[in-house]
Amino acid sequence: AASLNGITGTWSPAVVNITTSGTYTFTPDAGQCAAPVSIDITVTPAVTPTFDPIAALCLNSTAPALPATSLNGVAGSWSPAAISTSAIGTTTYTFTPAAGECATSASIDVTITDQITPTFTAIPPFCAGAAAPVLPAASLNGITGSWVPAVVNNTTSGSYTFIPDANQCAAPVSIDITVTPAVTPAFDAIGALCQNGVAPALPGISNNGINGTWSPAVINTSVIGTSTYIFTPAAGEC
């Protein structure tokens, strides 16, 4: 309301506009031997801090630190101060410029996603001693990883755990593989037969239900002595 050298007066405009630069004129009160004077007041546009976006993070993964300085050089602090990955969802983190910075506040959203469960085609039981299936290097839903144990044991049932490769939002998963013990076909004993007598037919199914074929296929009674007949289970029989 008064100059440094004691002149009282009024201003036009009377109030400084805090959004736009402008000129303000001081008019001395009547009865003072003083001239009007103008001053320019510059309003600097507030900078909006900018930051690189943070991609979705995996549940319970290690979170990146929030930067203390924006890409365009504004220093400040965050609320909350650190990213939490302990819960699924989106959280807004607000950046407040430090005192003296001509900048506005800014915010970024960080999304936490649930871990994917790798899925696999079920491996059916197979017969002990048969060729073991190969465990796939990637799940049906595109997760790559490795197995423990790495190779299927074709003699014993077991559990196999898939460990996803790093940097995939996926959880380990286990599958059980059943190895069926091979059954030994059982048959009624065939007593001694008379030379050139009528031989019984060799059964196509064992007493314990195994289908198969014989070699030789038919009992020969034309020669005296003992012959061995081998039963081979049909394909798919364990």
Can you describe this structure in just a few lines?
With 238 residues, the protein is mainly beta. The protein contains no helices and 14 strands.
Order of helices and strands: EEEEEEEEEEEEEE
Shape: rod-shaped
Low-confidence stretches: none
In total, how many beta strands?
14
Radius of gyration using CA atoms only: 44 Å
Give me the secondary-structure topology:
Layout: E1 9-12, E2 22-28, E3 37-41, E4 57-58, E5 76-79, E6 89-97, E7 106-113, E8 126-127, E9 145-148, E10 158-164, E11 173-177, E12 179-180, E13 212-215, E14 230-233
Parallel strand pairs: 4-7, 8-12
Antiparallel strand pairs: 1-2, 2-3, 5-6, 6-7, 9-10, 10-11, 13-14
Outline the structure in words:
This protein has 238 residues and is mainly β. It has no helices and 14 strands. The chain has strands at residues 9-12, 22-28, 37-41, 57-58, 76-79, 89-97, 106-113, 126-127, 145-148, 158-164, 173-177, 179-180, 212-215, 230-233. Strand 6 (89-97) and strand 7 form a beta hairpin. It is rod-shaped, with a radius of gyration of 44 Å. The termini are far apart. The model has no long low-confidence stretch (mean pLDDT 96).
State the main characteristics:
rod-shaped; 238 residues; mainly beta; 4-stranded mixed beta sheet; 3-stranded antiparallel beta sheet
